[in-house]
């Protein structure tokens, strides 16, 4: 079909008409989903002779996303056939809808800007370094904002801090994590005691397996393993939850209502995890020692009273406190990274998965870096 005659009384709501010269395509009526099937069939039969053409859609009275898509498809089909669209007139009311649908990312087919060989490797290294630098600066800025909001919440706890949300996070990140943390800590205690006893047997010093187990679990292993488990479990959950809210535009709705997203979403998670992680670390220490005690009993024949007496000689309160002091710092970093990456999620589902993975990697990396820094600091201080 090359044209449709002028509108008449029995003409359907949506219509289009191509003039005799084929240089002007007029459109009008209600271009909605109800008319989309018919318009799709009729537009498919539209033939043009080439050259320039102007599209006049100023007489369209109603337009939804289905009709806007038909308009865009028609224009793109003309351009792909070599027809130049000289003008495209549409009521100003519907311009935002058309522009939104027209924002598709086109893949640029061209030569890669990354050079080959050694220069290319240098380029990738530099790009990774700059990305890490920008990420660090952005996260430090976010840390400053969270710090200011935390100070305001402490100054006005009744008005700004959400106690119910905080206790909910304690339950989610702490109580619900007890089974997995306890099981892994128990097994790590078993492995550590087994390997330590296997090596110390050569020197007839099996009893010092308890010293190795007590200092290793209480000072380093218990807190580090617990923080890594929490980073993979709770840190990823923070990113996924906040990221899904961004995809569903819930955060935009909260900001429109005047709610502070840091007070509402970030502070309860940070405070809840800061409370929960030291308790989880203490529980992990107990389970690790229990696993080691069972292995010492079955492999070395060391009874529980002997185990406890040797453990009392090997460790003291300071040994326990060194491991527990690190837990709130680990918790703060894990929660901060998880919430920060959640707010970086774009409005698509793929971004949620990508940022969740990045959150876990960054959280575990920072926990290990901080643990190494604490070890050096305690060594310098003689603790």
Overall description:
There is one protein chain. The protein is α/β, with parallel strands linked by helices. It has 2 domains: 15-102, Transcription Regulator spoIIAA (2-Layer Sandwich), CATH 3.30.750; 143-381, no CATH class. Helices cover 70% and strands 8% of the residues. The chain is built from 13 helices and 4 strands. The radius of gyration is 32 Å and the shape is elongated. The termini are far apart.
Topology:
Blueprint: E1 15-18, E2 24-31, H1 33-44, E3 52-63, H2 65-80, E4 84-89, H3 95-102, H4 118-155, H5 157-160, H6 163-173, H7 178-200, H8 209-247, H9 250-256, H10 261-300, H11 304-314, H12 317-343, H13 349-381
Parallel strand pairs: 2-3, 3-4
Antiparallel strand pairs: 1-2
Describe the structure concisely:
The protein is an alpha/beta fold and 383 residues long.
Tally of DSSP helical segments? 13
Uncertain segments of ≥5 residues (pLDDT<50)?
Answer: 1-11, 105-109
Question: How many E strands?
Answer: 4
How much of the sequence lies in strands comes to 5-15%
**Average predicted confidence as pLDDT:** 84
Largest sheet: 4 strands, mixed
Features of the shown structure:
four-stranded mixed sheet; 8% strand; 2 domains; 383 residues; 13 helices
